[in-house]
Amino acid sequence: MNDLHPRLTAARPDLADARLRGKVEAARFVAGTPKQVVAGAAPLRRDPRGDAALDTELLHGETVLVFEETAEGWAWVKLDSDGYVGWCPSEALGDVGAAPTHRVRTLRTFVYPGPSIKLAPSMLVSMNARVAVTAADEHFARTDAGFIYARHLAPLDVAEPDWVGVAEGFLGTPYLWGGRTSIGLDCSALVQMAMTAAGLPCPRDTDMQEAIVGTDLGVNDLTGLQRGDLLFWKGHVAIARGDGTMIHANGHHMDTVVEPIDGAVDRIARAGLAVTSVRRP
User: What radius of gyration do the chain's Cα atoms show?
Assistant: First the structure.
């Protein structure tokens, strides 16, 4: 994949990441200021407007480099985890705090101001959000964000054993273009979130995933697909479950569903799209 992929390159004619000096042309180069996502999640938009296209989302605890902030409250950033570049609300960001020690392992969980489920939650955070745990008992973990039910967290070095099983946990999650949480997500985010939970690196979008994830198996035979094989179409990806079915978040159902591979391939082909590749992570 091109290291100057437009969605991953913080470069405009007027401003660019200082690390790109000599690779791109810009009127000004800046090093960027490290910031951390302090909101439960935050949109990353194409332009600095609330009605601009949602390209992806930032998760709580992720870090970014901020290259510009506007008077209207928008920050132009590059996400450290997958490199995505875009505009997010400045109010969603704060100073970088203690290094995260744990991630959210459930689809979502609440953050409380104290160690009691009877308190009004202060925030909702989603799978793979990152927090720094400072103390814990059998019920609650004290984190830099607040108190979180301890069983909903896992140490960063503990990976889920079955990433496809993680994806299956998102069944019923509404489809949302650019979404990256269990409140709403798109096809490539389903793959990225599940693989991340299993400690497997994965880029954000389908074209990036098709370029570098796993081994290309070709498209001549779809009968021998194994659990975890990825099926790609132009702009879409699905996950084989090893039993003749696949799971995917998709705009046809506006949902995250399981359906037979043969039927889905035929349905999508009638819409004019053929399988472009199959890859095995």
Answer: 20
